[in-house]
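Give me structure tokens for this 79-residue protein.
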Amino acid sequence: MNLNELRSFVCESERGQVFDSLICVEIGLEEYEAFWMAHQDMNPNLEFEDSAVMFLIELHDYIGFSSDDIEKVLFTANE
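Here you go.
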């Protein structure tokens, strides 16, 4: 799966769209793609959905936002 397919999956919901935008702003598209490709290389046996969820959790930790910060951003996306 390439980055566009991952982003399409993530952006199926409004919250996913906000999280995807946050990732793009914080690390940029090139790093986003490099991280995704490396994640897939290290986890070749995972199904796409499992891989995507694990990847997003890892990115959340990498970016360094607290869960409260993410929840605030996601909550305001629904208003």
